[in-house]
Specification:
About 15% of the residues lie in helices and about 35% in strands. The protein has 3 helices and 18 strands. The strands form 5 sheets. Strands 1, 4, 14, 15 and 18 form a 5-stranded antiparallel β-sheet that branches. The chain has a 4-stranded antiparallel β-sheet with strand order 6-5-9-10, covered by helices on one side.
């Protein structure tokens, strides 16, 4: 079989579906299609950690002060470390408090957990999104003990540990499966074509290389490829990742088998002969 590589950069694409940016959901088009594709896989990727772990899809939660009232708290979009998240939460909670309470947030380098102490209590933090729960180390519903709330889980301030490279066109072809509870678009085959670990910090670049070079995906009935889309999702979220104007690049490997085309022509010829004879 003939070996072919395809190099794509999201800046060299066209916009798939406005208002989504080209760099977030690009579609790649080729003047000359690649035909007779037998197998395919993702070989390499360069992905900027320019996306925000706290973003417009997960940056709100509810502060409930017992017998006083409740309010929505919105964390500004961005990436946070232990210093910036504690100062931000302290300010936001104190400003939003229906009772005018003062809140102080701290982070333990020993346990990796956050804690909040109010000037008086008790209070509840209610988080609607699982991604924010993971980042802060909270559950969906968290009740303080008196004025103190010790967060139950370790904070994961860099967000999810992996990205899914996905494609609405190529995803159904790749033999990649998720458990029922993790499927983004049940019951149809998901768009995921590769799972990529996030092993760098915000502001750096994730460099991925295929860990199993001897293994390939059969492409089933994809005999010709002239255009395809790509995008990323973060962890279990089905939201397309926003790279904030930065581009990503992907290298695809294809194995070409001309016998596929030849067999197709032979079958077509045989069918045509039968039709004439009939």
């Amino acid at each position: 079989m003939e070996y072919v590589e395809i190099y794509v950069d999201s800046r060299d694409a066209v916009q798939t579906n406005p208002p989504t940016l080209i760099t977030d959901w690009p579609t790649f088009r080729f003047d000359t299609p690649v035909s007779d594709i037998a197998q395919m896989k993702v070989l390499e990727a360069a992905i900027p950690f320019s996306y925000y772990t706290i973003n417009q899809n997960n940056n709100t939660f509810t502060l409930i002060e017992s017998l006083i009232g409740s309010t929505t708290v919105t964390i500004p979009e961005g990436n946070y470390n232990s210093t910036t998240i504690t100062s931000t939460l302290s300010t936001l909670l104190s400003t939003a408090s229906p009772a005018g309470r003062t809140y102080s947030c701290t982070y333990s380098n020993t346990t990796g957990k956050l804690a909040i102490v109010a000037s008086s209590g008790p209070f509840v933090l209610q988080l609607p999104t699982s991604s924010l729960q993971i980042i802060l180390g909270l559950n969906a519903y968290n009740t303080s003990t008196g004025p103190t709330l010790l967060f139950p889980n370790v904070a994961q301030l860099t967000g999810e540990n992996y990205l899914y490279l996905s494609s609405d066109k190529l995803g159904p072809i790749f033999q990649t499966y998720l458990p029922t509870t993790a499927q983004q678009f049940p019951p149809s085959k998901g768009p995921q074509i590769s799972r990529i670990p996030v092993d760098v910090n915000p502001g750096e670049v994730i460099y991925y290389r295929d860990p199993a070079p001897e293994k390939w995906f059969d492409t089933q009935n994809l005999f010709k490829l002239q255009n395809f889309d790509l995008y990323f999702t973060l962890g279990s979220s089905n939201q397309k990742v926003s790279f904030n104007g930065q581009g990503f690049s992907i290298k695809l490997g294809l194995l070409i088998n001309p016998a596929i085309h030849n067999r197709s022509k032979q079958n077509a010829s045989f069918t045509a002969t039968k039709m004439v004879m009939g």
